[in-house]
Write a structure and sequence with these properties.
The protein has 80 residues and is mostly helical. The chain contains three helices and no strands.
Length: 80
Protein backbone atom coordinates (compact mmCIF):
# COMPACT_ATOMS: atom_id res chain seq x y z
CA UNK A 1 0.00 0.00 0.00
CA UNK A 2 1.24 3.47 -0.83
CA UNK A 3 0.15 4.98 2.46
CA UNK A 4 -1.15 8.53 2.55
CA UNK A 5 0.21 9.49 5.96
CA UNK A 6 3.64 7.98 5.31
CA UNK A 7 3.99 9.79 1.99
CA UNK A 8 2.63 12.92 3.65
CA UNK A 9 5.48 12.88 6.17
CA UNK A 10 7.96 12.67 3.30
CA UNK A 11 6.45 15.47 1.21
CA UNK A 12 5.95 17.81 4.18
CA UNK A 13 9.47 16.93 5.38
CA UNK A 14 10.91 17.84 2.00
CA UNK A 15 9.12 21.19 2.17
CA UNK A 16 10.72 21.86 5.56
CA UNK A 17 14.16 20.75 4.40
CA UNK A 18 13.99 22.97 1.32
CA UNK A 19 12.90 25.91 3.45
CA UNK A 20 16.16 25.81 5.39
CA UNK A 21 18.56 24.29 2.84
CA UNK A 22 20.98 26.92 1.55
CA UNK A 23 20.41 27.83 -2.12
CA UNK A 24 24.04 27.05 -2.91
CA UNK A 25 23.95 23.56 -1.35
CA UNK A 26 25.35 21.11 -3.94
CA UNK A 27 22.54 18.56 -3.50
CA UNK A 28 19.65 21.03 -3.45
CA UNK A 29 18.59 20.35 -7.04
CA UNK A 30 18.08 16.68 -6.15
CA UNK A 31 15.75 17.62 -3.28
CA UNK A 32 13.86 20.13 -5.44
CA UNK A 33 13.38 17.56 -8.21
CA UNK A 34 12.14 14.96 -5.73
CA UNK A 35 9.70 17.43 -4.19
CA UNK A 36 8.37 18.53 -7.58
CA UNK A 37 7.96 14.99 -8.87
CA UNK A 38 6.24 13.80 -5.72
CA UNK A 39 3.98 16.88 -5.47
CA UNK A 40 2.83 16.46 -9.06
CA UNK A 41 1.91 12.81 -8.53
CA UNK A 42 0.24 13.44 -5.17
CA UNK A 43 -1.92 16.18 -6.69
CA UNK A 44 -3.14 13.69 -9.30
CA UNK A 45 -4.26 11.29 -6.56
CA UNK A 46 -6.46 13.76 -4.66
CA UNK A 47 -10.10 12.73 -4.40
CA UNK A 48 -12.94 14.77 -5.89
CA UNK A 49 -13.89 15.82 -2.34
CA UNK A 50 -10.43 17.34 -1.74
CA UNK A 51 -9.19 14.54 0.52
CA UNK A 52 -6.67 11.78 -0.05
CA UNK A 53 -7.42 8.22 1.03
CA UNK A 54 -5.22 6.02 3.22
CA UNK A 55 -4.26 3.93 0.19
CA UNK A 56 -3.10 6.35 -2.47
CA UNK A 57 -3.13 3.86 -5.35
CA UNK A 58 -6.27 1.95 -4.32
CA UNK A 59 -8.57 4.57 -2.75
CA UNK A 60 -11.60 2.28 -2.96
CA UNK A 61 -9.99 -0.16 -0.52
CA UNK A 62 -10.02 2.54 2.20
CA UNK A 63 -12.78 4.95 1.09
CA UNK A 64 -12.88 7.04 4.27
CA UNK A 65 -10.92 10.34 3.91
CA UNK A 66 -7.51 10.24 5.58
CA UNK A 67 -7.16 13.55 7.38
CA UNK A 68 -3.51 13.20 8.48
CA UNK A 69 -2.24 12.57 4.97
CA UNK A 70 -4.52 15.29 3.63
CA UNK A 71 -3.10 17.74 6.17
CA UNK A 72 0.48 16.90 5.27
CA UNK A 73 -0.19 17.17 1.52
CA UNK A 74 -2.08 20.44 1.92
CA UNK A 75 0.78 21.92 3.95
CA UNK A 76 3.42 20.83 1.41
CA UNK A 77 1.48 21.94 -1.66
CA UNK A 78 0.58 25.27 -0.08
CA UNK A 79 4.24 25.79 0.88
CA UNK A 80 5.28 25.13 -2.72
Amino acid sequence: MFWSRGNGWVLAGLARVLQYLPPDYAGRTRFVALFQEMAQRIAQLQGADGYWRASLLDPDSQPIPETSGTGFFTYALAWA
